[in-house]
Amino acid sequence: MAADRFPSPFDIETPPGAEGWESMYDWYHLFGPERRELDEGRFWFADRLHHPDVLHPYDEIQCECWWQALGAFNTRIFAMPPSFGVDQRIVNGRLYVTPVAAPAEQIAARAEEFGRRAGHYYERWDAIYAEWKEKVTAKLEEIRGLRFDPLPELEPESTVYEHVGHSAGFRMIRDFDRLVLTMYETYQYHFELLNIGYAAYLTFFAMCRQAFPDISDQSISRMVGGLRVELYRPDDELKRLAKEAQRLGLAGRLGGTEDAATLFAALRSDTAGAEWVADWERTADPWFLINTDPGHPGGYHTYPTWADEPEIPLASVREYLRRLEAGESIDRPTDEVLSERDRITAGYRELLADEERATFDETLALARQVFAYIEEHVLYIEHWMWATFWAKSKELSRALAAMGEFDEPEDMFFLRRYEVAEAIYDCVAGWSVGSRPRGADHWRPIITRRREIYEALRAWEPPPALGPPPTQIDEPFTVMLWGITTSTVSEWLRADGDAGTLRGTAGSPGVVEGPVRVVTHPSELTEVQPGEVLVCPATSPSWAPVFARVAATISDVGGIMSHTAIVCREYGMPSVVGTGNAVATLRTGQRVRVDGSEGVVTVLAPADAEPDGAGRSGSP
């Protein structure tokens, strides 16, 4: 039976044991009675693309960064015609969002303004993008340059003889502000190009749909893909390291199961091994500064980078090396993707009248031009910047714990950022006057209770959406990024769906049959076997090496322009994205058919009936 609406956000009950969860988050992120009339009439969906799990209080910073920046650039800077920003609320530790539509009476004027402002960027795109990279890498170096050490018993003599004029305690207070504000400023840059890049892409989509009414979103997207972008460089570096290991005759030594530290120590004992380890270490910065969160990289402080856990990239190098030794190619099929792209493009261009082709060519050229940024910004912001931000935050937490402000470093992440600023001041004030700060005594009961709340919230299964469903979902970013469509919402409202079939967005074409491998954490990626069908909440660029082993990918969230869909098209692998509940529905070992051309997943056999192996029954 289908319901006609989702629960009101004001009717959601607190999970047992999580009473008082609201204290973990800033008041402006919560539903409140003063805006009940507004919020209860809006459609909210769980943002599992960016934040699939419960948020630590400190990690709320990440949500705030994109909440304000996306809104400002859409609403106030570029005057995006159809939409303002994306509003956020936190419910039981999960992030819910709702797109804010621009008033209909403003759209024409905003479109005119947008044409002028975005046009300025489009005409100068390459130069502005080059400038953008310089701005972001400068901010990265600013964060890297910050130091958070335990405060000294006595300041060094240089403080006196070089007339520094301020204390290490002052610098700790100042530099925490710099850390947070630098990340906020970087997120302004994040949206400087992103949404107008998507707008150019959407313009091409709209033109194709008007010219070719029966064209699929997938066919349009394949006309734009196949570009060589920096986002794939980390995976390419792993392939290069595998080839170097083979060249140096190290295949047998890398083929074992030792952990990275043991393996590298053994390899350093001879010339060839030492050369390879030195290559690995040079490559690690920056190409292993890769966050491993499922979905939006860098959304949580709890996920390691490849550099933190070298076993993750090492497993991929070993797999690539195994395939090289077996005589297989490990390179991405970029030439095939480009050839198919050009074939599809030429076919549709031929259908146009001569006078329409110039507009088609120009619009497509711009879509391809902006596509590089749309993919590459993830490397600069979501990986390099957020990995460095979390690393510096952990450096600060270790310093505060060493000084007695917290019992252990992880305690800091159970405080909101404004509370962290209070803790730093308390610690610095006590250090400054040679007295005892209140520190751990004050925070201990608060943090103890929040740990309990956090665990209780993790056990709660959030509804996919809240509030009244819209009659039609056509806000382009909601559809293309999150994969939230009218049919998706209808499926969520159904209480008696077909358990043997999952439907989503056709992310990448082709048909594959194979056994399921459910992965919800990057630590499980090493368990994926060749020929399996990867089932996950969403993928991140850090998961790219696993695509060398799997036959297809199914994700809970994402649309045609989500990372999962894009990367599967680049790797020539079928995918169905935005299924909503594949992780909860499917079990490792079940045999399924993945139809990436139609967006359908069919369960063929239960997990206990699964034979080994997988077979491709179709091709793009």
From TrEMBL:
Tell me if Protein transport is a UniProt keyword of this record. no
Q: Which InterPro entries match?
A: PEP-util_enz_mobile_dom, PEP_Utilizing_Enz, Phosphohistidine_dom_sf
GO molecular-function term, one example from the UniProt record = kinase activity
Q: Which domain of life is it from?
A: Bacteria
Record key words, sorted:
Kinase, Pyruvate, Transferase
- Any idea where the PEP-utilising enzyme mobile domain is? 529-599
Gene3D superfamilies associated with the record? Phosphohistidine domain
Instruction: Give one Pfam hit by family name.
Output: PEP-utilizers
Coiled-coil blocks: none
| PANTHER family per the UniProt record, alphabetical | PHOSPHOENOLPYRUVATE SYNTHASE-RELATED (PTHR43615), PPDK_N DOMAIN-CONTAINING PROTEIN (PTHR43615:SF1)
State what protein this is by name: Pyruvate,water dikinase
